[in-house]
Design goal:
By secondary structure, the protein is mostly helical. The protein has 6 helices and 2 strands. Strand 1 and strand 2 form a beta hairpin. It starts with a strand and ends with a helix.
Length: 226
Amino acid sequence: MNLGNKKILVHKGIRTISIYNFCMIVKTSDFRFLIKNYNEDEDTDAYSEFMHDSKLEEVWNSIRDDYDKFVGDKSERKKYIALLGIDEMEATLSLISNILDIYTSSEDPKILWELNSIKGFTFKHYKPVQDQLNIIIKRVKHLKNKLSIAQIKFEDKYLSNIDENESKLKNIIDDIESTAQVFEIDLGVPYKINTKETSVLRWLNLIKLKEQKDKEADSNAKKIKR
């Protein structure tokens, strides 16, 4: 990667950046920890011009996206579909509102024929206008309620995961050395885990293994009690 007049090798994903460097960036916002072989203990002024480099910030944002996808909610397709449903309801309500506003101004029933192009709404030229408008208004109210419920559910299920992910991240960076010792003991890792050499991906997989082992232990304990 070219930074200024220098060609520098940098970590570009959770497969290569160490959990130590990852946590140091979270704590300090020092993007030099993205630079491969950077050691803050050897020279505190090394690469100082790149501490807050914009190109490195873009790389960091990409790494954080990788991290969030790995630890976050896996139902991205469901999230996308839910968001599409909300967008569709908002667009429908906006279109109906525009049609009714134009009709109110012109009082031309032909304007209401446009409602036939909207799913769930119809207008017949041979039926009383006011009776049909009353039905349309009821359906609009129902759609607004449906939209409000969908928005609340979306926020609870998906947007709250942002805070959950940040909480998980905080737990990870609080004391990685102690966590490494827990992995060594509980998972029977036959070597000392070096946090400066263990990738974020490897670290997250260790967390998953630990969680799985804890669940199995809880399940076995419940069986014994029975």
